[in-house]
Amino acid sequence: MADDVLLQLDRVGKTFRSGLLGRRVEAVREVSLTLRRGESVGYLGPNGSGKTTSIKCILSLIQPSRGAIRLFGKPPSDALARARVGYLPESPYFYDYLTPHEVLDYVGRLYGIDRGTRKKRVPMLLDRLGLAQAMHRPLRGFSKGMLQRVGIAQSLLSDPDLLIYDEPLSGLDPIGRKEVRELMVDLRKEGKSLFFSSHVLTDIETLCDSVCILDRGVAVAQGRLSELLLADRLESEAVIELAADAQEAAIAVLTSVPGAVLCERAGAVVRLRVPTPRVPELTQRALEVQAQLRELAPRRDSLEELFMRKAVHVQEVGGAA
Amino acid sequence: MSTFTSQGGVTLRTQGVGRSLLRIFAVAGNTLREAGRNRLFYGLLGAAALLLVFSVLLSDLALLDQKARLVQDFGLFIIPLLDVASAVLMGALLLYKEIDRKTLYAILPKPIRRSEFLLGKLLGLCGLLALQELALALCWYGVLKLRGGDMTPAIGIALLLSYIEVVFITSVALFFSALSRPVLSGVLTVGVFLIGRVSYVLADLLGAQKSIFSEVPAMHAIGRVLLTVVPDLSTFNVADEVLLGWDVPLHYVTAAAAYGLSWSALFTVAALLVFERRDIV
Q1: Where are the domains of chain B?
Q2: How much is the pLDDT for A315?
Q3: Please, how many CA atoms are within 13 Å of residue B173, restricted to the half-sphere of its CB?
Q4: Minimal CB count within 10 Å: which of B64, B143, B177, B272?
Q5: Mutation target among A91, A109, A140 for the B interface, most CBs of B within 10 A
Q6: Which residue blocks in A112-200 are alpha helix, DSSP H?
């Protein structure tokens, strides 16, 4: 395995047994993905799609039923591999009788960080997360946003190469979301690799360069965001200015191109969507009706469109089966 | 490779027996700290101390020369009982609380082995129960002094053996808490305690000339097996010897301690095996 591959899941699945009869519940059916150094991967999926279960498999909290996971080239059960990961659980809970300073000191001891480094690093991180004033107050009085910040601080204590955050922005107020999002942008600039789950699409679009969409335990789409949003939507959009006369006839000519759809008309300017292979035909027709091609660009899906299309597709297949 | 230094210069030392022990002590220390900040623990300790003080009033009912003895008797009964009750309650909740409050999710992904975490929890709880027994013994000593009695080496031995029993019960509770929910863990642990406390009756029946065990060979064999697989907790109860003023020989104490710690080790290893494979859902 190349050194720059930090995390690799190869056809990972998890089946739980529940009830007295041992009924099988497939939480994760098949997930394969690779995360390389410096990458930021968004793990996207609706509630119950298996995001948290697969993250728990990555961190050795759950043993996968099938497939293989490599963390820094080692199995997740290897403590040294886990030492290089900073993990923020979903809705993080810490010992509420401890103060943030004590939580980080305790975590530092588990990482084997010496006392001198802990003494310097713990207040520095708490200060960075805006918890300097509250570092000696017990957590039981903390708001959700403050607990989230404690969670992020403890995930950064060992200066890890890879950050795995499970729903880091859920349950936060708008200001809290903005602060955490900015922090994650900063961490990316510092060279941290990021793997985080969310069902908030805008967060993924802002923070990630790659995504893996999970639905009902299956990775239904994955890859670089820019490529995924262009892939299997081979359409282009053209903005065309029509000549002053016979505009209706010109529109009829343009829309006669197979697959062309008139999206919008504002006076003499029309916006058309056309299959990309038909673009030369459209430009030819535009010349014929003496119209001017103002803009031509490949049409890009929004992440929401992509997600809905993939999730709905899987549900239809699942329903048919 | 025993250490790893991050790009930012933070050195992590995760390998080696010494590091492993430090992690176990870190978890044990945190377990102690949790109890130290729990008002319920102090409430229970206070109630237990009050119960011991109550024995002063109770001793007023005794004949003149029996007052100190009654306090002694009461203490030897109540302190081990309170300690066992604490071991059952806290032991049954030991892992459940960590999973229920989801605190385990933030700890186990760190470079700590599950066995280290479990041993740390066990060590912390045993330390806590030792402190509890010590506090109650001190309180008892005060009450005993008040009634003209004194602490004898035999009483110290009785307390030591009762503590070894508590360590055993804690490891049993830990084993069941790694397997099941707290109520069931508690019930099963109490079951093991009660069976262990009366297993000497089975031994007596096996030795008796006229009993079902001596008359039916198959039952005798079953009885022998039962006696082997069930710990004999009466080994740790020397209250009668202490009250009668008999000596408890050192070789008996050593053998009893080895017996109790061996059973504890067995249940702890079983708990480790179960916890190692458990999915933290």
Answers
A1: 15-277
A2: 54
A3: 29
A4: B64
A5: A109
A6: 115-128, 144-156, 174-189
Query: Residue A316: its pLDDT value, please?
Result: 53
Q: Does B10 touch chain A (CB under 8 A)?
A: yes
**DSSP element (H, E) containing B4:** strand B3-5
Residue whose tokens read 């060979």: B217
Q: Which of B12, B19, B38 sits opposite A158 (nearest CB)?
A: B12
ipTM: 0.86
A85: which strand partners? A162
The angle at the Cα of A88, spanning A82 to A91, to the nearest 5 degrees, equals: 145
Residues of chain A with pLDDT under 70: 1-2, 230-233, 301, 311-321
A270-314 pLDDT per residue, tens: 999 888 888 999 999 999 999 999 998 887 767 777 777 776 555
Interface contact A62-B277, CB threshold 8 A: no
DSSP A13-34: EEEEEETTTTEEEEEEEEEEEE
For range B223-229, the mean pLDDT? 79
- Please answer whether residues B175 and B271 qualify as being in contact, where contact means their C-beta atoms are separated by less than 8 angstroms: yes
Name every chain B residue with its beta carbon within 8 A of the beta carbon of A157: 10
Q: Which residue of A has its CA nearest to B24?
A: A110
Q: Are B14 and A112 inside 8 Å of each other by CB?
A: yes
Query: Hey, what CATH class is A5-229 in?
Result: alpha beta
pLDDT at B142: 86
Contact indicator for A83, A155 with CB cutoff of 8 Å: no
Name the residue ranges covered by the structural domains of chain A: 5-229, 234-298
Say yes or no: domain A234-298 is CATH 3.30.40.10.
Answer: no
Residue B212 pLDDT > 80: no
Distance from CA of A114 to the nearest CA of B (A): 8
Contacts of B14 in chain A (CB under 8 A): 79-80, 83, 111-112
Indicate if the alpha-carbon torsion angle B230, B231, B232, B237 is positive or negative: negative
Residue B256: both structure tokens together: 């009893």
DSSP-based three-state secondary structure for A185: helix
Sheet holding A261-266, edge to edge: A261-266, A269-275, A235-241, A292-298
| CA distances to B70, B71, B76, B148 from B65, in Å | 10, 12, 18, 10
The two tokens of residue B30 are 């945190």
Distance from C-alpha of B3 to C-alpha of B107, rounded to nearest angstrom: 20
A202-226 confidence digits (pLDDT tens):
888 888 989 999 988 999 888 888 7
Question: What's the CA gap between B280 and A57, in Å, rounded?
Answer: 10
Q: Which residues contact A234 (CB under 8 A, 6 or more apart)?
A: A275, A276, A277
